[in-house]
Amino acid sequence: MSNIEKDIEHGGQVGEQYARPKQTGPDFTHGVALYLENVSVWFDAFRALNDLSLYIQEGELRCIIGPNGAGKTTLMDVITGKTRPTEGTAFFGQNYNLAKMSTEQIAESGIGRKFQKPTVFENFTVMENLLLAAPKDKRVKKSLFRKLSADAQLALDESLQQIRLQEFIHKPAGLLSHGQKQWLEIGMLLMQRPKLILLDEPVAGMTDAETERTAELCLELKKNHTLVVVEHDMSFIDTISEKVTVLAQGAILAEGTLAEVQANEEVIEKYLGR
Ligand SMILES: Nc1ncnc2c1ncn2[C@@H]1O[C@H](COP(=O)(O)OP(=O)(O)O)[C@@H](O)[C@H]1O
Ligand SMILES: [Mg+2]
Where would I find the ABC transporter domain in this sequence (predicted)? Predict the structure, then answer.
């Protein structure tokens, strides 16, 4: 038996040299989950983000709106390490310098992201998709098609309950509706137990009923997570939003309640139209 197998056999107690260094987790002692300061992203001469500063409080649900090309997705790319800021700093809590971490390290530190398009594995069942999304812990991996560890079972149960797909657990994901696939993907994020969740246009292409259900889901997630949600659907934003940030041409145009930003002259001019 190899040392790694022994390690698994003994629940990681033997051969600690193979165990991952213990993650301390993000430090939110100042009440702030995310600090972006003077962030610019240049694509050649084009500035997708232009000297943007944004602070997200722990436990907040922040909505980000703005015209196409405003830089909303680029902002999420910076937070998740997919794109590096050309200038400025990005911190998760006090202690994680996002600009110096790989996308994998950022995910492990507690940031989960849902992209615009669902990326579930269509041939796998709902349950298999969720288990495949579990943290890449060797014990969980080994137990994937055997007996579930207590922790993986708990994460699975909690995740299924939140996305309300219990009755479809053995159904191939390819047979789910578009909305159900989006929820499954949110469930896959939850398997990682993220502290900060980023959702990019979660209700695009959803029916009205699915959109309503997604709003409920966001409000439930808010009880235990910090969320940043990018959306164009104003009635959805109205249902879930506290503070709204309007982005245009890579910079913040306005911040406030939805009613406040909707009454802002510049926002009307550059985004909402007259
Ligand atoms: N990898 C890239 N290379 C060049 N330009 C890009 C890249 N990614 C985004 N952009 C440009 O940056 C701008 C902002 O894009 P994006 O962040 O996707 O906007 P939004 O999500 O608000 O619609 C757009 O003009 C887009 O074409
Ligand atoms: Mg986008």
Answer: 34-274
Q: Quick one: pLDDT at residue 142?
A: 55
Q: Is the pLDDT of residue 26 over 90?
A: yes
- 133 is written with which tokens? 């999304």
Q: In the predicted model, is pLDDT for residue 144 greater than 70?
A: no
Structure tokens at 180: 């159900």
Which ligand 1 atom lies nearest to the CA of residue 70?
22
Residue written as token pair 């202690």: 95
The closest residue, in CA terms, to atom 27 on ligand 1 is 69
For the whole model, what pTM was predicted?
Answer: 0.88
* Domain 27-122+197-272, CATH number (from 3.60.15.10, 3.40.50.300, 3.40.50.2300, 3.30.450.40): 3.40.50.300
29-43, 85-99, 132-146, 183-197: least confidently modelled range? 132-146
- Which residue has its alpha carbon closest to ligand 1 atom 4? 43
Quickly list H helices, the chain.
Answer: 3-9, 72-80, 103-109, 126-132, 138-143, 150-163, 178-190, 208-222, 234-240, 258-262, 265-267
- The domains of the chain are located at 27-122+197-272
